[in-house]
């Protein structure tokens, strides 16, 4: 019984920690979406932009690898595809906000916006259809 109570308390502490530390990416991400590069220290702008660009590129790489990892069992990867698609769409909405706020970016950024708000959601819908036809529950 004591072990069960400990695990419940440990679970509660983990939930609290994630709630508290989750404020960092939610707040920083929200401010970053709203302010763009104005959020960065102008004295170190180039270094900060390079650091942030590489970090976001790493996340983009991880998203692509996670999608690829789903390929062999695509019919059973609905949750993964939906979570990854959600991440991509939120990024696309942020990029769309930048387009409205700062102006039309270069062609690669416009094409990325199309991937984020059109291609990826369509692939997610297609995966859902395949999951219904061939998935473990079908």
How is this fold's topology laid out?
Layout: H1 2-21, H2 23-35, H3 45-70, H4 78-102, H5 107-134
Helix pairs in contact: 3-4, 4-5
Report what the structure shows.
- This protein has 138 residues and is mainly α.
- Helix content is 81%, strand content 0%.
- It is flat, with a radius of gyration of 19 Å.
- The relative contact order is 0.08.
- The mean pLDDT is 93.
Over all CA atoms, what is the radius of gyration? Answer: 19 Å
Largest sheet: none
Instruction: Give me the count of strands.
Output: 0
Element string (H = helix, E = strand): HHHHH
Distance N to C terminus: 40 Å
Average pLDDT number:
93
Overall shape: flat
Poorly predicted runs are none
Estimate percent helicity: over 70%
Count of separate DSSP helical elements: 5
| Beta fraction | under 5%
Structural class, from secondary structure content? mainly alpha
Q: What count of domains describes the coordinates? A: 2
Annotation keywords:
138 residues, mainly alpha, 2 domains, flat
Task: Summarize the structure in short.
With 138 residues, the protein is an all-alpha fold.
